[in-house]
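User: Could you walk me through two proteins back to back? I'd like the raw sequence and the structure tokens for each, with a short line separating them so I can tell where one ends and the next begins.

Assistant: Of course. Protein one, sequence then structure:
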Amino acid sequence: MESHRLLALFLTEGRELLNRVDAELMVLERAPHSRASIDAAFRALHSLKGMSATVGFESTAAALHAGESILDAARNGMALSGELLGALFALTGGTRHALDAAEHRLPEPDVLLTLARRLEASLEASRLTVSTVLKRPEAAQLVRDATTTGAACWCVAVQIATDAPMPEARATLLLRRLSAIAPVVRVAPGEGIRASDDWDRRVTIWLGEGSSVDHIEQVARGTGDIGECHVVRDVVPSLGSRHVEARTVRIPAQRLDDLLDLVGELVLARDRLLRVALPTADEPTTVALEEASGLVGKLREAILQSRLVPMADIMDRFPRHVHDMAQSLGKDVELVMEGRELEVDRSLLEELSEPLLHLLRNAVDHGVERPEHRRACGKPARGRLVVRVARDGAMVAVTVGDDGAGVCRDRVIAAAQARGIEPATPEALDDAGLLTLLAIPGLSTASEVTALSGRGVGVNAVVHRVQSLGGRVDLATVPGAGTAFTIRLPLSVAMLRALLVRVANETYAIPLSLVHTTSRRGDHAPADHVAGLQLHGEQLRIVSLRTRLGLPAADDVSGHLVVLDGSAGRFALLVDACIAQQEIVVKPLQRVRGAAPRFSGGTILSDGTPSLILDINSLN
């Protein structure tokens, strides 16, 4: 049991450390002399090496030791060449395969020993051509850095303009001005490197408490000849610091799921008790019931809060994926991520990973153009890809946008016509209609199938998965300017707001986020009471829920129409009646072989009766 817990800890923390190393290596591709990134990558590899040795992964530990040696040499002045960085990227990829193998109880991949030898050979070749002797001023700076006991509260990363005269003097002036508003804890690189001819004019300064982001940036830019300036919170605990890190406890995910199920049952029991007891209860009993009800509500909120995890848990994997895809396609892509700190339910996070990777893959492959094409269009050679996460009321909105070529409507229409579909003309095809076509299974505008895309499953998989979770996908695209896909999902897929409908004395739940509008059927006068409905100038198909569920028609029920946004477009669902809106706890259903996929889950309603959650895409 102890070894099992140790392995689980190794897998969880190991992947986090690898994401950290990849992020720092991508910084080093642009700024090979960044001491902060070298130090951060070195510490992460060192920690991962120790963990690998502890769980008996000797080949992994040997390969990580070789990578650690390269970064240690870089800390001592050796330049990180493209070959060395490529070897380090290969190391993190190989280590990730080793973690995957460990998770499935498989032996370590043989490639790790080959990687270790490659890393050692690359390091030896670099040592033959580059002197690693430290200058005395730099050594003195390293000693000062190593013995500093103050705690840094701000990290200030500055790029001095390339045309600035006397950059070393500019850096000294910058240090002097910043030290006037907050204590300088540490500086990288040291004076020796800043005085050398090959300094890249980047300097990172760690400041203690005593100022704010806006003030620090204002003072730094006021120095003059500053190209870039980024200020972030960066607390580094030390012996002299009063900062105390929050304690965390690792809890198995199944235990959190069990707690949510229990509190869901407790809420239902509370509602039944209140419905039965309150009408006849005396005042003391009423007060006690209301207090107990409030405590149950607080307990429910506390359990829901305990399930929240930051989006960074999946977003930190994206930079390496985008980096590798762009390199394989000969493209230069900058990935910008915003909202990593936003917390969502753990179950939602697990479901979001695959759809977002599909969208990133499509953006790199189909959206962002090659550097030479972008230059010919007057764009920067380097494309930009943005992943932005934000709260949208009771939903979380994740946008994946690129500044590429946009979606070509003519090609999409041609691909649809090749499959026997006659869509609107390009002028009449809006973004919603375009998304509907792109979501058709197998429809692709790619001229050939590649390892990344081209089979027409990406957008279809995203739309179908998101809608099955009670969310929706929106598209905005402009030819030559770029494309943005926005996924909107409830903050938790374990609990969601639902519309309750009745058919043949049974109650069913529909995710409210998919509902466009509802109305009585008698409020409209469609030309065909079975096939279609004219609503606000839009022709909608009518789908009978009774028919889809194999129930006989009822002539004595006029019914309600629920207009829904499905993966194949908007349609009207005919039900016997709309009952109410209610927040429900989603319980997964085990799939039965041969059964029609009409339901995505189940729930228990407030009156204690069970209800099934409709899978809208299977009804459309």
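----
Protein two, same layout:
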Amino acid sequence: MPKLRIIPLGGLGEIGKNMTVIEYGNSIIIIDAGIMFPRSDMHGVDFILPDWQYLLDKKDSIKGIVITHGHEDHIGALGHLVEEFDVPIYATLLTQGLVKSRLQRRGKQASKLITMRPRQQFKLGPFRIDPFRVCHSIPDGVGLGIYTPVGLVVHSGDYKFDHTPVDGRPPDFAKLAEFANQGVLVLLADSTNSDKPGWTPSEAVIDGAFDQVMRDSPGRVIVASFASLISRIQQVILAAQRHGRKVAVAGRSMVDNTNIARQLGYLDYPGSMRITVADANKMPPEQVVIMTTGTQGEPMAGLGRLALNRHRSLSIEKDDTVVISAHPIPGNEEMVYQTINYLFQRGAHVIYDAIAPVHVSGHASREEQKLLINLLRPKFLVPIHGELRHLTLHGELAQELGIEPDNIVVVENGHILEFDADSVKVRGRVPGTYVYVDGAIVGDIGPSVLRERRTLSREGFIVAVIHLDSKGRMVGDADLITRGIASSDEAPWLFDGIQKAAVEAVKQSHVGDEEQIEQNVSRSVSKYLRSTTGSRPMVFTVASCSS
């Protein structure tokens, strides 16, 4: 009898690019296909994809892709994935609309985009999928009960136990109890907040904070959130309505997502509340709310452009209040706080989570994680969706609840987990690295390129052009082209030293040996700069021989 294999290709050991493979015999299903946003030191990278090399020679085995919800870290890679795998994509109605929009923006379409609904089971090869409703910061999110020939696997999706969600649809506790009665072999459970004690507050607590902002702000209120955070957009619209303000939506992705959610009935955004950005610029400021993106400090997003005064339609005005309704993703803190500082410089009053409860997490904290484990009592637990510290803490929490340590599997991306009814083993590792997307370039940017970009950004560079006569001897001084270091006017002594280092290096080279001259000059100039300034700019040398 074949073993059940679970292979995380993204989301374990990191926040983002969630993607999990479940395999039995010659049949595979994929759960989610998201992107990860780059850290501040990943210069030039737009976003990061999961590494799905493992699947390239198994295309005929893939029965379908099942999506838990519509956030970018779960659907963002689909535009690239469908180029490789022409398989059905199963998603709930709102998620399906967001997926379709995402694919259209890339000029792609899925050959089969199939609507799934909570509690409506469907089969994919040997797998029977039973979606169940969960609460998250976007409507229409689901977890998955996956019946396999080896046993029942429950994938929590992104969840929290919110009894008063914005959309009025609480978690499906009855379905969880049903799974428990049947016996759960493996629980794949969201670990994002495993370092947060207690319970994650309900989305409802934000309403009071938004009411206060709308009431007390003398001018416009500009709210930044994720474009796919439909529940938050709804709360902003309702708060604006209560305080006599109209709402404009700025930014292509947020406009698209808002229109999709409204058309599908997941967003109550009446025509009487809708204005354009152009309308907002003409109306009394105290009657205006503007929703935009850019909560992670992205310079090209709406809030980043406002902070840098580069937005084509808007600018920060006196008495504006900016609300950042999101937590910084780990690694983005520096960019977020820099954006906040720029907004303050421009005269805005900025409110973020450290000041007022304008954001709550969409993920379960420790007490909710305990509740899920105790409800399901799984034989095996695989913590998912989190950095290694989150996964480890989740595993320790499960031990406190009586799960055997050998039945808790804390792994990072790429590890192959093999299950039978009584045991789990880690069977090696497949590629689970970063695939960088830089504009139209996918996968051709590697760690060495990023290291070079980091060096260039920190230290700058020097190009030394060495002129040689027909006999291979140096003529005159080197031509120096520099970026990111002091200029010759600011530090003439430095450039004199560079010239002397270049001349000495040429003298120590074989006459006319251009390759050796280039190597020696680069090495000599680098050594001189290190010893005199402590800096390590990249040094390039070109030896040019005149005819």
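The first strand starts at residue 4 and ends at 10.

Let me know if you want the two compared in more detail.
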